[in-house]
Write a structure and sequence with these properties.
The complex is a heterodimer of chains A (386) and B (459). With 386 residues, chain A is of the alpha/beta class. Chain A contains 17 helices and eight strands. Chain A has three domains: 101 residues, no CATH class; 131 residues, Rossmann fold (3-Layer(aba) Sandwich); 127 residues, AF0625-like (Rossmann fold). Chain B is an alpha+beta fold and 459 residues long. Chain B has four domains: 86 residues, Uridine Diphospho-n-acetylenolpyruvylglucosamine Reductase, domain 2, CATH 3.30.43; 129 residues, Uridine Diphospho-n-acetylenolpyruvylglucosamine Reductase, domain 3; 96 residues, Alpha-Beta Plaits, CATH 3.30.70; 96 residues, FAD-linked oxidases, C-terminal domain (Vanillyl-alcohol Oxidase, Chain A, domain 3, 3-Layer(aba) Sandwich).
Chain lengths: 386, 459
């Protein structure tokens, strides 16, 4: 197994379970299950034990391993600088080894099969990827500055499609020159990679890179931070040559072009940092620049923000596999409770996965009258008058 | 496996929070130290005191051992299930229940972590702080209190168990009792003037009950903080130096340390002295007092204070410091364990030399140091050895060094702190027989079924 040489070096000191300010548990799977096994240190020691023949690979072990949502909190807060950057790589290698052994959880296996067969997690035709833009007066990509890539959730989930239209409309109003990619694109592969299915990821990436090259794409705008992460950090190693931006990064500098209504009451908004925009790509400011630029928007911070943000629990494929569900302390439920405690009336997100996860959590927590989850563009559009 | 145990535990805490799976049994069979594995039959994660009481009653009925566990960071294996049974991982009970800013105490649940209270106070009561141990922030307050831990306010307030103001405890027979003022009053201000029953649960390694709530003392959080590092080369001078520095009674924490790395530290004996104040003027006054107390050595040019740039000073003042956990990676092997021996301060030179000799004999990577407890009333002298978990020979050498250190510490009049089971037996051999007999009588009254962490404090 790759990275196995670091497994025994973990002391299980537990810094990885917490944010940097220690306010509460910040490892999503440990938060949800609370057994030491579900913490990063537990996984390190269990993988070592498996390699040493002390613990067998079985369904429980697979659940423990694949419930890691790759949020990167452990990497951010591990006390050991010499190997902290390799923690997630080791877990991914462990997942890959379990896939090879044929002991991955059935939900993981089914998800990967669907993506293998259809090129997306929804089992929909690839040509429908840009269907969300049809009839919405949103241009398709031809020779604009940016090519807008829709990930699986944006392209095929009804809520994702709604968000995509909102983002696209706002980008148009702000004068961002973009067109929606409408070729035969496949899943960005980010979560496939973090599930340990490296070969499939490389196939997806190679296909998308080839299609982008064919269309002459030079700059990519993504709605999903997951796409941003894969295309910016992993595609170049596979031949990708495009510059990659999250849409908030383009929008932040175009906010001056927008005209806002000034007669609306002040509203308190908390921003939920998506893991793949924040911890994985260290952009904590673009979204906040946008929110601060809107009149009447009062930005409040939750106790866990930026590098300390609590993940919604949807990363690492868990949006589809749902391995963390079922308890009172799923990360999304804890996160919306934290948002309410901050005094926010709106929880702004910048990731379609976060949006769906947190909206579901608001319903489960019966907080519909207290807290509204909005994709960033939606709350900005409200202030413009849409 | 005891028949039906898992199912009955599931009825109490829910199926999500009970496991008899190989993965949990493996991981909960050990801690990060060198003690051998001991497998439990089940791991349960209670959320309420009632659930804890139900589990204890179930264990009593089935005659199954119960081992309470906080963060599992004791390193000496006290949370291993030596005779099987149920490990109660207490960390779901992690609420900060109340803070009384006027009488300066907090009430927390038995699984609440040090880091959580620190963060809570920083946000809601920034003028207050509690004494953090050098353990990582996930360490629980109850666990640390129950082993007589110490921390960065121990010069001011003594051992952490001295900072305890009261407890809620589930007895081995399932009753829920309170100790201290909270047994009479709604307030958790202290343990006097009542018979002090808290001692029934402090230092007993979980053999007398399960702490589900505790009150702890808080202290002023100063606006201005500083650190001095005193350095000398003469171990024999250290007791006098410590006596002089503690005598002025202005520091919050005093921690001597001696390590061969980094190179600039090798061969020197350092004392970190942390102190704080409400104003710069007060801080300067305290600094002057501390410096004046050891002027004798500075005038003789046999010792002095280390110049500290602000960034380095900030690193030393960081509480808790991840540098201590990093010692575990010294041999790129994720392991360290230490003997922390409580002893009189005059034994400092002897302890230092013993540590050096043992490290040399067993060829182990070491770090030596101490924390002064109270106003120079005692010290916890630690002998820490790093090892490579993947190298059996390295682990064996560290174990042998630890054994030799425990023996040396006891021989010089010290008492190993949070002693592992074999060392408990060494302590019992030196203990007044009537004292040990009384311990046994107390246990048999509290725990007639013998279910609480058996194997500890036994001959």
């Amino acid at each position: 197994m790759e990275h196995e040489e670091i497994l025994h070096r973990c002391f299980r000191c537990g810094y990885c379970k917490l944010p940097g300010n220690y306010v509460d548990i910040n490892c999503p799977s440990y938060l949800a299950f609370r057994f030491e096994t579900y913490a990063p240190g537990g996984r390190m020691w269990l993988l070592r034990a498996w390699l040493d023949g002390k613990v067998a690979a079985g369904p429980r072990f697979a659940d423990i391993l694949f419930s890691c949502v790759a949020c990167g909190n452990c990497v951010a807060h591990c006390a050991f600088p010499e190997f902290k950057d390799r923690l997630l790589l080791a877990f991914t290698a462990g997942k890959e080894a379990f896939l090879d052994e044929g002991v991955a959880p059935p939900m993981v296996r089914d998800l990967l099969t669907k993506i293998q067969n259809h090129g997306n997690a929804y089992g929909k035709p690839g040509k429908q990827r840009s269907g969300w833009a049809e009839g919405a007066d949103i241009p398709l990509f031809s020779d604009q500055e940016y090519a807008f890539f829709a990930d699986d959730v944006t392209a095929y989930d009804p809520r994702g499609q709604e968000i995509a239209r909102s983002v696209a409309r706002l980008l148009q109003l702000a004068g961002v020159n973009f067109g929606v990619l409408s070729g035969d694109f496949r899943s960005d592969g980010n979560d496939v990679r973090s599930l340990g299915e490296t070969a499939l990821f490389e196939d997806l990436a190679a296909h998308n890179i080839k299609e982008m090259n064919r269309l002459g794409v030079q700059k990519i705008l993504t709605l999903s931070p997951h796409s941003l992460n894969a295309m910016k950090n992993d595609y170049p190693g596979l031949g990708g040559k495009q510059q990659v931006f999250h849409y908030t990064q383009a929008l932040a500098f175009a906010m001056k072009n927008l005209k806002f209504k000034t007669d609306l009451p002040e509203i308190r908004v908390a921003f939920h940092d998506p893991c793949y925009l924040g911890r994985h790509n260290t952009d904590y400011e673009s979204a906040r620049m946008i929110l601060r630029a809107v009149p009447g928007m009062k930005l409040v911070e939750m106790d866990r923000n930026r590098k300390n943000a609590l993940c919604c629990g949807g990363g690492g494929g868990n949006f589809f596999t749902d391995l963390l569900s079922g308890g009172d302390d799923t990360p999304a439920r804890v996160r919306v409770r934290e948002a309410v405690a901050s005094g926010a009336l709106v929880l702004a997100v910048a990731c379609p996965i976060c949006a769906v996860m947190l909206e579901d959590a608001v319903k489960v927590e019966n907080l519909e009258k207290t807290l509204r989850v909005c994709e960033l563009s939606e709350i900005v559009m409200e202030r413009i008058g849409f | 496996m005891i028949s039906g145990l898992i199912q009955r535990l599931e009825k109490i805490v829910g199926s999500r929070f009970v496991s008899g799976a190989a993965e949990e049994l493996y991981l909960y069979s050990m801690d990060p130290g060198t003690m051998p594995q001991a497998y439990p039959d089940a791991v349960a994660l209670p959320k309420t005191v009632e659930e804890v009481a139900q589990i204890v009653r179930l264990a009593g009925e089935l005659k199954v051992p119960v081992v309470p566990m906080g963060a599992g960071l004791v390193l000496s294996g006290l949370t291993r299930a030596l005779r099987g049974g149920i490990i109660l991982d207490m960390k779901r009970m992690n609420r900060i229940i109340a803070v009384n800013p006027m009488s300066r105490y907090a009430v927390v649940e038995g699984g609440a972590s040090q880091g959580m209270l620190q963060a809570f106070l920083k946000k809601h009561h920034p003028s207050l702080k509690h004494s953090m141990p050098d353990a990582p922030p996930i360490a629980t307050m109850a666990g640390n209190m129950c082993i007589h831990g110490s921390g960065h306010l121990s010069l001011l307030g003594g051992s952490h168990s001295d900072m305890l103001t009261g407890m809620e405890v589930v007895l081995p027979t399932g009753e829920i009792i309170r100790t201290g003022s909270c047994s009479v009053s709604p307030d958790w201000f202290g343990r006097s003037p009542l018979p002090d029953l808290s001692g029934l649960f402090l230092g007993w390694a979980g053999t007398t009950g399960i702490v589900t709530k505790l009150g702890i003392k808080l202290f002023p959080n100063y606006a201005f903080n500083d650190m001095l590092i005193f350095v000398c080369e003469d171990a024999d001078a250290m007791p006098d130096v410590i006596s002089r520095l503690t005598g002025v009674q202005v520091a919050e924490d005093m921690t001597p340390w001696m390590t061969p790395k980094p190179d600039w530290a090798k061969g020197f004996l350092h004392i970190n002295i942390a102190f704080g104040a409400h104003s710069k003027k007060e801080l300067t006054f305290k600094r002057n007092l501390l410096q004046a107390s050891v002027r004798h050595y500075i005038d003789q040019k046999t010792a002095g204070f280390l110049p500290l740039p602000p960034t380095q000073k900030g690193r030393f003042l960081k509480v808790p410091s991840p540098d201590l956990a990093r010692f575990a990676d010294l041999r790129r092997g994720g392991g360290f364990e230490y003997v922390g021996a409580m002893m009189a301060i005059e034994h400092f030179p002897e302890a230092y030399r013993a540590g050096l000799a043992i490290a040399e004999k067993f060829q182990v990577s070491y770090s030596l140091g101490a924390r002064i407890i109270g106003a120079g009333h005692a010290m916890m002298f630690f002998f820490a050895y790093a090892f490579n978990r993947a190298d059996d020979d390295d682990v064996r050498r560290a174990s042998l060094a630890l054994e030799a250190t425990n023996e040396a510490a006891i021989n010089m009049g010290g008492i190993p702190w949070k002693a592992e089971m074999p060392v408990q037996r060494q302590i019992i051999e030196r203990m007044d027989p009537e004292t040990f007999a009384l311990m046994g009588r107390i246990r048999s009254v509290l725990d007639p079924n013998g279910i609480m962490n058996p194997g500890n404090w036994e001959k």
